[in-house]
Amino acid sequence: GTVDSFLEDVLGESVDQAARARAVTEGRLRAAKINSVVDRLEEGEQNDEGVVRQLVGQFLLPNIERQVHQRKAEMQTHRFAEAAKSSLEETFNRVEGELARG
Predict the structure, then answer these.
(1) Cα–Cα distance measured from residue 34 to residue 21, given in angstroms and rounded to the nearest whole number
(2) Distance of alpha carbon 27 from its chain centroid, rounded?
(3) Under DSSP, is residue 32 helix (H, G, I), strand (E, B) or coil?
């Protein structure tokens, strides 16, 4: 009923807000990291292979690792949210049954 949908909305909004905040933070960190690498590259005279090696090593690989960790965290968060939802539904159904009987 109404309580279930309210709790779903609250949980959903909390997860959405946390995801947005994390995305903004990661975007800022990536931009800072890229700027740092570009600045270092501009300071030194490097060939194309050296530039590519630095970009891959300092940005792309760590970025892929972050994405893998983020996906794992999202899956775990989803699993916990589903478990909480299931538990709440079970509790509400039990309470509703008790109220209907007595």
Answers:
(1) 20
(2) 12
(3) helix
- DSSP notation for 27-55: HHHHHHHHHHHHHHHHHS---HHHHHHHH
- Interval 30-67: pLDDT, tens: 888 877 777 776 676 666 777 777 777 777 778 788 88
Contact 41, 51 (CB under 8 A): yes
**For residue 62, what are its two tokens?**
């760590």
Tokens in use for 25?
């933070």
pTM of the entire predicted model: 0.38
- Which DSSP state fits 47? -
